[in-house]
Amino acid sequence: MLTDKTALVTGASRGIGRAIALKLAQLGAKVLVNYSGSAEKAQETVELIRAAGGTAEALQCDVSDFQACGELAKKVIAEHGRLDILVNNAGITRDGLLMTMSEEDYDKVLDTNLKGAFNMIRHFSRAFLKQRSGRIINISSVSGVLGNAGQANYSASKAGLIGLTKSAARELAGRGICVNAVAPGFIETDMTAAMNEDIKKKAVEQIPVGRIGQPADIAEAVAFLAGDGAGYITGQVLCVDGGMAI
Ligand code: NAP
Fold first, then answer.
1. Which residues are catalytic?
2. Given a cut of 90, is residue 95 above it in pLDDT?
């Protein structure tokens, strides 16, 4: 159980982030539901948690904005006194082939997916160090583990997140803070909804368990890493991908 814990999930207005927020709340954590532009969807996540008897509130912040993340961290610590679980889930894609990928598409993806996680860890690390406890879980991707044609920017950001995870794990372990990454495979969310049926069918053929994953599959792994039972696990990458990265 995560009773008396406060958790912040970035990008929790939809998809995997929402499922993680619901799961952590179901286990008793007070959940701060971060979003960038989807205020209504974030409020929907909050209402779903409240309807199930949990505690949640929505917090707007663009994770790629260093200063805004600093202000968010200050607000969270002032209002809640501490943060126990930080899930860096916010992420975007701007797919394209290397030869034609724009500088803007490269930068936007790196700024959101990789720098966004750095921004949050950077601004919350003082509170974590002071508490001498904490869990940081970064949502990477199978694309960061294996690479993926047409996703050089995204794969670089997700591989970078693995390096960030391992370095932060080494730096913070002595103070009781565990830092791990979860690498989802092909999960059914808005991010993958735009793919055409043919590509989806081909993708399923690459998944040994033979099905597309659900956001709840990822939430279960995050809940495990956030729980008391995972206190001796740090610097790891847990692939939750139906076997794609075997
Ligand atoms: P999604 O449905 O597109 O949702 C993305 C979430 O990120 C939304 O809540 C969005 O908030 C938020 N977000 C985007 N930019 C943000 C920013 N600058 N600041 C704060 N929040 C921001 O995506 P998803 O499929 O659930 O993916 C969640 C994470 O899992 C991502 O990191 C993704 O790379 C990773 N992942 C997904 C898959 C997959 O197959 N779906 C596979 C591997 C890894 P708004 O609604 O406010 O824009």
1. 154
2. yes
